[in-house]
Amino acid sequence: MNPIVLYKNYIMLQHVANLKWNMQKQLRINIFYITTLYIAIFYFSSFTHTHGENFNDFDSSIVRLKAVSNIENSSNSDNSYLLFELVTGRTEQTNKENTFRLESNKDVTDIKLSQHLDYESNRQYSLIVRVQNKYQLAAETVVDIEVLDVSYKLENFKDPFAIDPQTGNITTLVTFDREVKDIYNVKIIATDNSPSALFRTGEHNKRQQVFQIEIADKNDNPPRFTRQ
């Protein structure tokens, strides 16, 4: 995979040497050096990443970025000079509230979640990640994160349970009797509220999971005397 070179800077340095010839004539020589300064670059350009608002794994990587120092005849050790920064903007969409954070290791950095996502509050983030090499030359890339609205429902409405369509919290509708039934298998269907790119029919993305709910035993037998 070839990295995407954003740009190169060329600096022309001019040195002036004054030489005297036979102590009488002065010869002016202009010597030009062209020096190439290589900036750090990302392996990927800007892209969009989607996540449901119910995502709450603060340890998992949402997006992983890899960069290279882009120094000619350099060894892998030069990548240890890379410094990653998540640029904080002036709006919530540009991470003003520090919803996301970076965790970096040498030439790799991971964007991770710092706060819960909320579709109703903010539906899209535009994050600027900057990388800088040991010559303090930097490059930037933009990562757009789209937040998907997620709703929940029960597959079988005859089950003695209810579910909050926004939070996914399951509550009970009846008082259970373990002697009658001690285990319930409840299937939950989570659906985002945007048409899926996987289907031409406009159908939404869905995911389902079965939860096993076990009714705990409760001592509902009153004490009794062994003798009258």
From TrEMBL:
<dbReference type="GO" id="GO:0016342">
    <property type="term" value="C:catenin complex"/>
</dbReference>
<keyword id="KW-0472">Membrane</keyword>
<dbReference type="InterPro" id="IPR002126">
    <property type="entry name" value="Cadherin-like_dom"/>
</dbReference>
<feature type="domain" description="Cadherin">
    <location>
        <begin position="150"/>
        <end position="225"/>
    </location>
</feature>
<dbReference type="GO" id="GO:0045296">
    <property type="term" value="F:cadherin binding"/>
</dbReference>
<dbReference type="GO" id="GO:0016477">
    <property type="term" value="P:cell migration"/>
</dbReference>
<dbReference type="GO" id="GO:0008013">
    <property type="term" value="F:beta-catenin binding"/>
</dbReference>
<dbReference type="GO" id="GO:0005509">
    <property type="term" value="F:calcium ion binding"/>
</dbReference>
<keyword id="KW-0812">Transmembrane</keyword>
<keyword id="KW-0106">Calcium</keyword>
<dbReference type="Pfam" id="PF00028">
    <property type="entry name" value="Cadherin"/>
</dbReference>
<dbReference type="InterPro" id="IPR015919">
    <property type="entry name" value="Cadherin-like_sf"/>
</dbReference>
<protein>
    <submittedName>
        <fullName>DE-cadherin</fullName>
    </submittedName>
</protein>
<dbReference type="InterPro" id="IPR020894">
    <property type="entry name" value="Cadherin_CS"/>
</dbReference>
<keyword id="KW-1133">Transmembrane helix</keyword>
<dbReference type="InterPro" id="IPR039808">
    <property type="entry name" value="Cadherin"/>
</dbReference>
<feature type="domain" description="Cadherin">
    <location>
        <begin position="57"/>
        <end position="149"/>
    </location>
</feature>
<dbReference type="GO" id="GO:0007156">
    <property type="term" value="P:homophilic cell adhesion via plasma membrane adhesion molecules"/>
</dbReference>
<feature type="transmembrane region" description="Helical">
    <location>
        <begin position="27"/>
        <end position="45"/>
    </location>
</feature>
<keyword id="KW-0677">Repeat</keyword>
